[in-house]
Amino acid sequence: MEIKIFENEKEIGEVAGRFYVDFINANPSCVLGLATGATPLPVYGYIAEKYAAGEVSLKDVKTFNLDEYCGIPQDDKNSYFTFMRENLFSKTDVNPANVGFLDGNADPDEESARYAAAIESAGGIDIQLLGIGRNGHIAFNEPGEEFTGEAWKVKLTESTIAANSIYFTDSEMPRYAMTMGIGSIMKAKKIILIATGESKAEAVRAMIEGPVTPHCPASVLQQHPDTVIYLDRAAASLLK
Ligand code: GLP
């Protein structure tokens, strides 16, 4: 794991965003694994800004998102699909035909097989972007007794429901989600994980300095050959 520490999330947005813009310009038909949540917003903002300035095009980029809620329509205002449309897809020239998304309302086993096949036929994920949950989850792979494999349907923990229910102001937050598994995430050629803020400091410490254990799903990244962790000072504050 390579660890990079920055002053604040704005700086991370610029440095990681610049890395993405350069990578896309060098590899216009690359395959990007994308994440939702507040953490990647500065990166998406930077890419959208450079698209608007004519410095990058995403027209041939293929994307696969990590996860989606079950039990709400894809165009629900709180779906992860809507989040991506609002924060990246509609602000760039990503071709809708190149967007891969898990369907939270499909049969979980069939959907898992479909997604794995789609990623494989695209040539695999070049860079997987990740955030981290306060309990060490990545995508929606919650702490458990074993590392998960391909995409699966997960029952969300109380910690995750508490953290994410702030977005569900006038509806109940779903209790289940479809998520890429740890096995599918680990297949990415490169992984970029971003964590910002004090609320992530303990999870960051466990991920980097703790044992590799499914009790902290992100700790598995210690075994990935090309993972870069971008932290702000607050998220890095408990590291030795
Ligand atoms: C959700 C998502 C994760 C994300 C996490 C942290 O649970 N499924 O992919 O990393 O939230 O979100 P945030 O960046 O808003 O803290």
Break the fold down into its secondary structure elements and pairings.
Layout: E1 2-6, H1 9-26, E2 31-34, H2 41-52, E3 62-65, E4 67-69, H3 80-87, E5 99-100, H4 108-121, E6 127-130, E7 152-155, H5 158-164, E8 176-179, H6 182-186, E9 190-195, H7 201-209, E10 227-232
Parallel strand pairs: 1-10, 2-3, 2-6, 3-5, 6-9, 9-10
Antiparallel strand pairs: 4-8, 7-8
Helix pairs in contact: 1-2
Bound molecules: 2-amino-2-deoxy-6-O-phosphono-alpha-D-glucopyranose (GLP).
Describe the structure.
The protein has 240 residues and is α/β, with parallel strands linked by helices. The protein has one domain: 3-Layer(aba) Sandwich (Rossmann fold). Helix content is 30%, strand content 18%. It is built from seven helices and ten strands. The chain has helices spanning 9-26, 41-52, 80-87, 108-121, 158-164, 182-186, 201-209; strands spanning 2-6, 31-34, 62-65, 67-69, 99-100, 127-130, 152-155, 176-179, 190-195, 227-232. The chain has a seven-stranded parallel beta sheet with strand order 1-10-9-6-2-3-5. α2 links the parallel β2 and β3 (62-65). α1 (9-26) packs across α2. Bound molecules: 2-amino-2-deoxy-6-O-phosphono-alpha-D-glucopyranose.
| Topology-level CATH name | Rossmann fold
For the sheet with most strands, the description reads: 7 strands, parallel
Number of strands: 10
Low-confidence stretches: none
Give the helix proportion (percent range).
Answer: 25-40%
- Integer-rounded radius of gyration: 17 Å
Instruction: Name the quaternary structure.
Output: single chain
Q: What's the order of the H and E elements?
A: EHEHEEHEHEEHEHEHE
Overall shape: globular
Q: How would you write the strand order of the largest sheet?
A: 1-10-9-6-2-3-5
Give me the number of helical elements.
Answer: 7
Q: Which hetero ligands occur in this complex?
A: 2-amino-2-deoxy-6-O-phosphono-alpha-D-glucopyranose
Number of domains: 1
Give the CATH architecture.
3-Layer(aba) Sandwich
Beta percentage is 15-25%
Structural class: alpha/beta
N-to-C CA distance? 15 Å
Mean pLDDT across the residues is 97
Return the CATH class: Alpha Beta
